[in-house]
Design brief:
Strand order of the largest sheet: 8-9-7-10
Bound molecules: alpha-D-glucopyranose
Radius of gyration: 28 Å
Number of helices: 18
Structural class: alpha+beta
Largest sheet: 4 strands, mixed
Shape: globular
Helix content: 40-55%
Distance between the termini: 112 Å
Number of strands: 11
Strand content: 5-15%
């Protein structure tokens, strides 16, 4: 082979190699292109402002692990009924921007009945469901379907000033009468201004609080199976009378009718009252370093009438997926992450809301910070649901209106509860 021939062979080889590399490169580019140009999917949801900092932290972690998903968090009002109104109007108007629905337990029947939520039982197998608290899970069902994965549970409790009770030689109260006696005794001694703080404003929190007092007198609101209404029964009237008496006797301030959870928590935390009805998140804040009542607070189930037992209202929040979402697969990935053990543990450590996975109630890290956790399981297993019916928000509205009328002495407890019962029966179509 001559020198020239050798050269042209080399050239041809080089040319074919170049072609080969070029083909390889373009194939690679062809596959890489969609990845380069594809925008991440955005999932949008609405949440109460006070929870935003905690969720931002969890969202950051989720996005770091899921580069194909971005979360657009919209900040809403804290009161559950206002948040519910915003979700409701978005779904009613059509074209809702929400992919995920951060839901209070009491919204589920309405949202499910309206067809706004995806049914989740295919995605959420029975073995996985069994790891969650029963009441929270049941609260996510409607007519056999499952519409919500619980992430944060709530049960109303009685907070008390351990130090003040000990100093005055009182045991924590079990009955409504004992709570009144202790309050009045400590108020008389000038130790505190007020006895008992509760949520009396016309909003959903009042209904939740009232369920506990009502059950503590042995009464009920609406039986979800028979739609029987118990609001004008003697036990319900006694329950309203008790709350009215707390204002009449100065155990609760007249201003209690303007209080939501946070107002009552702040007053209690500043040391001005002996007792507080509230959710478990208060424990975390009341025991923070800068809290004047740090280490001085006890927590127990709500007081009740003699012969009856304590009742905690079942509250709590969870995730649903909007039926209209264009990204159900990504939405489910987010729900799985946010309801995972690790995310729930972090939520509790950061904000004090309780988890919904049973195992976390024995988690050493959580129990160290929240010593009451193991005993909370018992309270939660017996917690009372607000009536799980599709017209719940309207029924709650009626109750709130007439409770306000009684709390502000516009109507006597009897008249208020008679009117509330009648209107509720009309709503449910059960008025004979
Ligand atoms: C808490 C509870 C919720 C309840 C609300 C009332 O957020 O978790 O279930 O409806 O308080 O204010």
């Amino acid at each position: 082979m001559g020198k020239r021939q050798k050269h042209s062979l080399k050239q041809r080889l080089l040319q074919s190699l170049g072609l080969f590399v070029a083909i390889l490169l373009s194939i690679k580019l062809l596959f890489a292109l969609p990845g380069l140009t594809q925008q991440p999917v955005t999932l949008t949801f609405l949440i109460g402002a006070s929870e935003v900092p905690t969720w931002k932290e969890l969202i950051k972690q989720f996005e770091a692990k899921n580069s194909d998903i971005r979360i657009n968090l919209i900040e809403g009002p804290n009161a559950t009924n206002l948040l519910e109104d915003l979700y409701t109007s978005a779904f009613l108007l059509g074209g809702s921007p929400y992919d995920l629905v951060y839901m209070d337990i009491v919204w589920v029947p309405k949202f499910a009945a309206a067809g706004w939520l995806m049914e989740l039982s295919q995605l959420f197998p029975k073995e996985e469901q069994a790891k969650f608290l029963r009441g929270d899970l049941e609260g996510g069902r409607y007519r056999g379907g499952l519409y919500r994965v619980p992430v944060h549970t709530d049960a109303g409790m009685l907070y008390y000033r351990k130090d003040l009770l000990e100093q005055a030689g009182f045991k924590p109260p079990d009955t409504f009468a004992e709570l009144m006696q202790i309050s009045q005794a400590l108020q008389k001694q000038g130790v505190v201004r007020r006895g008992f703080l509760w949520q009396g404003r016309q909003y959903e929190g009042t209904s939740a609080m009232f369920v506990e007092i009502l059950k503590g007198y042995g009464g009920f609101w609406i039986n979800p199976d028979t739609l029987e209404v118990g609001l004008d029964r003697p036990e319900a009237i006694q329950a309203v009378q008790f709350l009215v008496n707390t204002i009449r006797d100065g155990v609760s301030a007249p201003g209690v009718v303007t209080y939501q959870e946070e107002e009552t928590r702040r007053i209690f935390q500043s040391g001005e009252a002996v007792f507080l009805r509230n959710w478990p998140y208060v424990w975390y804040l009341a025991n923070k370093e800068d809290s004047p009542v740090r280490g001085k607070v006890g927590l127990k189930p709500m007081v009740h009438a003699p012969g009856q037992s304590s009742a905690a209202c079942q509250g709590g929040w969870g995730w649903g997926i909007a039926k209209t979402t264009k990204h159900p697969e990504q939405a489910w990935r987010a729900v799985q992450f946010f309801s995972s053990s690790d995310a729930q543990r972090q939520f509790t450590l950061m904000a004090g809301g309780l988890p919904t996975r049973r195992e976390l109630f024995k988690d050493p890290q959580l129990v160290q910070k929240y010593s009451f956790l193991p005993t909370m399981l018992e309270v939660l297993d017996k917690a009372v649901l607000r009536p799980p019916i599709a017209q719940y928000d309207q029924a709650s509205d009626i109750l709130q209106r007439y409770l306000t009328a009684a709390f502000t002495s516009q109507l006597t407890p009897e008249r208020a509860m008679k009117a509330a019962a009648d209107e509720t029966r009309r709503l449910l179509g059960t008025k004979g």
